[in-house]
Amino acid sequence: MKTRERAGIGLVLLFCTRPSSAMVPLSVYKQAASLHMTAKLDDYLNGVGNGFVWANAELQGRNLHPLFCQPKMALTQDNFVALFVGESKHRSNANTEWAENSPIELVLLTALESAFPCK
User: Fold this and answer.
1) 3-16 and 26-34 are packed helices; what angle lies between their axes, rounded to 10 degrees?
2) Residues 6+ apart with CB under 8 A from 71
3) Cβ distance 34 to 82 under 8 Å?
4) Widest pairwise Cα distance in the chain
5) Which of 13, 15, 24, 27 is the most buried (most CB within 10 A)?
6) For residues 83 and 114, what is the distance between their CA atoms, to the nearest angstrom?
7) Vertex 115, ends 107 and 76: CA angle to 5°?
């Protein structure tokens, strides 16, 4: 088995065996991207993004300040992934250990807040 295949299998197993309450560091996503194996993580980002959308709906229903102000459009997996990738590149340019260990969930939330600020 090639080293690349072993690394890919190890990465998938690492992600799939994580408890749902554990955060996924940005470094794991970047490693998956280098192996062209982000499909499961992209699905995960879609779920996290939809969770943020539902959290916003609940906050607004309680007359509380939302996490971000969503435009009058549905956000799709492609939107969440594109926003995430853009923000992760921004963090990577910071080139710090904190940036590499940033939870992808936080990176996505920051991307949504930056892309759709509340005025």
Assistant:
1) 140
2) 116
3) no
4) 56
5) 24
6) 9
7) 80
Sign of the alpha-carbon dihedral angle for 93, 94, 95, 97: negative
Annotate the chain with three-state secondary structure. CCHHHHHHHHHHHHHHCCCCCCCCEHHHHHHHHHCCCCHHHHHHHHHHHHHHHHHHHHHHHCCCCCCCCCCCCCCCHHHHHHHHHHHHHHHHHHCCHHHHHCEHHHHHHHHHHHHCCCC
Crossing angle, helix 77-94 and helix 26-34, to 10 degrees? 110
Q: What is the pLDDT of residues 14-25, one digit of tens each?
A: 555 444 557 899
